């Protein structure tokens, strides 16, 4: 039901909130380290092509479904089909995916909060980064404390509703995040390693490009935009039917990509200036950066700014994940927002407890406990969400939009209020990408995850 549902106060509010959902640890942590591991420039170029041909078409499709249905991710499919349909399973998968991802994402986000505190006290730059991160990961008290705090902050914001909570937070978090990123980038330009970083990120180093790097770029282009879990569909459902789906999708995708590139131009100059290499993998943020800041002037101030930035990025993504599940209970079950948010946040917190214990010596959920293969609980949830739930969700959304949604209604909605969408050939090109290129790309990503490719 759409009666009484919240709506964004403006198109800018949607863009800021949607960009906040997309801009997260994937931009500030994962993209720089996979860029570093895959040689920079040529990898970045392949990634940008994948964003344009794969990520953007799914983004438009997901936002389009939300705007057309004005409903939650579960209610969208039967509403647009006009009858009960098996496609509703895509909506259920979206809710489940959001809960699963947020349960362990909150633990990682908690590390950023912990590092903010360590930066404030000065302990961050006094400690050995490798030992500090290992002890943080293994300490159940630290992980549970910050997992609890992060989920509480997220729940308080989502309790405020679309205008009073999500929109208000987006209008603060995203501008502050961008200003802090700009300040860090300005600082990075003063460092000796900046020229080398620019060449590394934008220089076309074809010799470093491998088949695995291409598949990595393809996979990340899909996951970085928060696609396949219903977050963009849910946010799209709060758009007015007059809003331009193409413009807001383009703006969100562009902002997400710009932040990812800025993150590289912040992290790599600092890394190079401290005499370290780019290809140091997942430890680039929590190990390399503290070590680098310790060797640079004003390290305590800049390390604090960096980890506050990381926390803001994580929070803006977490808000959208919680909203997906809460919107289902509000729209389809008639729950009050208060009860929906408290129940879903409580569920996420409980499911996240084993992830918070995954680095400890706890026998049931600790580092030595294996669930799928040699993976602990944390790694198992990440594996399931990244390699199965998100791709299947994206495949379902693309398939429904391209093949099961009424052709006339789809085209009319695509072009509604959009000058770009009404240009000759634009709708046709988008539909062909969604029908053929996107499904093939997603299947390739899944086969790569299985080790087949």
Structural class: mainly alpha
Helix content: over 70%
N- to C-terminal distance: 44 Å
What is the count of β-strands? 0
| Tally of distinct domains | 1
What would the principal axes of the Cα set say about the shape? globular
Give me the strand/helix succession. HHHHHHHHHHHHHHHHHHH
What is the count of helical runs?
A: 19
| CATH class descriptor | Mainly Alpha
Task: List descriptors.
453 residues; mainly alpha; Amino acid/polyamine transporter I
Q: Could you give a quick summary of the protein structure above?
A:
With 453 residues, the protein is mostly helical.
Overview of this structure, please?
With 453 residues, this protein is mainly alpha-helical. The protein has one domain: Amino acid/polyamine transporter I, CATH 1.20.1740.10. 75% of the residues lie in helices and 0% in strands. The radius of gyration is 21 Å and the shape is globular.
What is the element layout, followed by pairings?
Elements lengths: L10 H12 L2 H13 L3 H29 L3 H9 L6 H34 L1 H4 L2 H10 L1 H20 L1 H29 L4 H9 L8 H13 L7 H6 L8 H29 L14 H7 L4 H35 L3 H20 L20 H28 L2 H9 L10 H24 L4
Helix pairs in contact: 1-9, 1-13, 1-15, 2-13, 3-4, 3-10, 3-11, 3-13, 3-17, 3-19, 4-5, 5-8, 5-15, 5-16, 5-17, 8-9, 8-15, 8-16, 9-13, 9-15, 10-13, 11-19, 13-14, 14-15, 15-16, 17-19
């Amino acid at each position: 039901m759409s009666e009484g549902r919240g709506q964004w106060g403006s198109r800018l509010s949607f863009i800021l909130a949607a960009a906040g959902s997309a801009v997260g640890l994937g931009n500030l942590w994962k993209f720089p380290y996979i860029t570093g591991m895959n040689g920079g420039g040529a990898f970045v170029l392949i990634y940008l092509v994948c964003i344009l041909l794969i990520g953007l078409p799914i983004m438009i499709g997901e936002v389009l479904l939300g705007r057309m249905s004005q409903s939650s991710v579960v209610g969208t499919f039967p509403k647009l089909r006009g009858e009960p349909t098996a496609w509703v399973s895509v909506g259920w998968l979206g809710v489940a995916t959001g809960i699963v991802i947020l349960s362990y994402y909150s633990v990682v986000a908690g590390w950023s909060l912990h590092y903010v505190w360590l930066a404030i006290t000065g302990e961050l730059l006094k400690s050995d980064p490798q030992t500090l991160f290992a002890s943080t990961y293994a300490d159940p008290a630290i992980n549970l404390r910050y997992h609890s705090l992060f989920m509480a902050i997220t729940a308080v914001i989502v309790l405020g509703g679309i205008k009073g909570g999500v929109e208000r937070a987006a209008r603060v978090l995203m501008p502050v995040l961008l200003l802090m990123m700009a300040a860090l980038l300005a600082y990075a330009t003063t460092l000796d390693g900046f020229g080398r970083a620019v060449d590394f990120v934008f220089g076309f180093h074809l010799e470093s490009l491998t088949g695995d790097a291409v598949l990595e770029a393809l996979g990340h282009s899909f996951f970085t935009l928060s696609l396949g879990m219903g977050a963009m569909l849910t946010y799209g459902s709060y758009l007015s039917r007059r809003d331009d789906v193409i413009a807001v999708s383009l703006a969100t995708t562009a902002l997400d990509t710009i932040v990812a590139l800025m993150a590289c131009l912040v992290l790599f100059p600092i890394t190079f200036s401290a005499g370290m290499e780019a290809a140091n993998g997942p430890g680039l943020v929590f190990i390399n950066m503290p070590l680098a800041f310790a060797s640079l002037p004003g390290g305590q101030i800049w390390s604090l700014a960096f980890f506050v930035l990381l926390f803001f990025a994580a929070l803006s993504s977490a808000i959208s994940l919680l909203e997906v599940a809460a919107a289902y209970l509000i729209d389809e079950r008639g729950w009050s927002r208060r009860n929906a948010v408290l129940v879903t946040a409580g569920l996420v917190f409980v499911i996240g407890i084993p992830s918070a214990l995954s680095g400890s010596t706890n026998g049931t959920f600790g580092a030595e406990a294996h669930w799928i293969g040699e993976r602990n609980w944390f790694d198992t949830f990440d594996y399931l969400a990244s390699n199965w739930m998100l791709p299947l969700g994206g495949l379902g959304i693309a398939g429904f939009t391209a093949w099961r949604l009424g052709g006339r209604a789809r085209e009319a909605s695509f072009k509604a209020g959009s000058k770009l969408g009404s240009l000759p050939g634009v709708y046709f090109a988008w539909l062909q990408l969604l029908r053929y290129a996107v499904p093939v790309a997603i299947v390739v990503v899944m086969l790569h995850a299985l080790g087949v490719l």
